[in-house]
Specification:
153 residues, 5-stranded antiparallel β-sheet, 32% helix, alpha+beta, 36% strand
Length: 153
């Protein structure tokens, strides 16, 4: 029982689904056959903050200054240039503080191998391959992860 508990805690941390296209040829290190014990669908969100480093703000200030410099004359031109610099830099700075949310649809498969060991794999959902409890599957081990596919008679 203790071994099973350790396996269930450690295996999910070490096994990740290797993203690949179904028509892509890859070298397989090992194949394990088993049967799906449980299926759980997961939605995971990742928030990505923009990675701008200030160049956009500087560029916005320069462009604003060039536009502002086209107006007025003498002291008025200097004021228009300064206002253009501040407005351009402010506009560019506010645009760069954006977030993007990426949503992943995943499936967690608990598989009982032919040897009686439980293996937990989380991989992307593939609409052409929906898993159910009792499905016969094969676990394909690659250098950079694993992938579960159904086996057909």
């Amino acid at each position: 029982m203790r071994t099973l508990l350790m396996l269930l805690l450690i295996v999910p941390l070490t096994l990740t689904a290797a993203p690949y296209k179904r028509n892509e040829a890859r070298a397989v290190n090992q194949i394990v056959f088993g049967q799906v014990d449980s299926v759980r669908y997961i939605t995971q969100q990742e928030v990505i903050n923009s990675q701008h480093n200030g160049w956009e703000t500087l560029l916005g200030g320069v462009v604003g200054g060039l536009i502002g410099n086209q107006f007025g004359g003498g002291r008025g031109r200097e004021v228009a240039t300064a206002v253009g610099v501040v407005a351009g830099a402010g506009y560019a700075h506010n645009r760069q503080n954006t977030q993007q949310v990426i949503q992943y649809r995943l499936v967690e498969l608990l598989i009982k191998s032919e040897e009686g060991k439980f293996i937990d794999v989380i991989q992307d959902v593939d609409q052409s391959m929906i898993f159910n409890r009792g499905d016969d599957v094969r676990i394909l081990y690659f250098n950079d992860g694993v992938r579960v596919d159904k086996t057909y008679p």
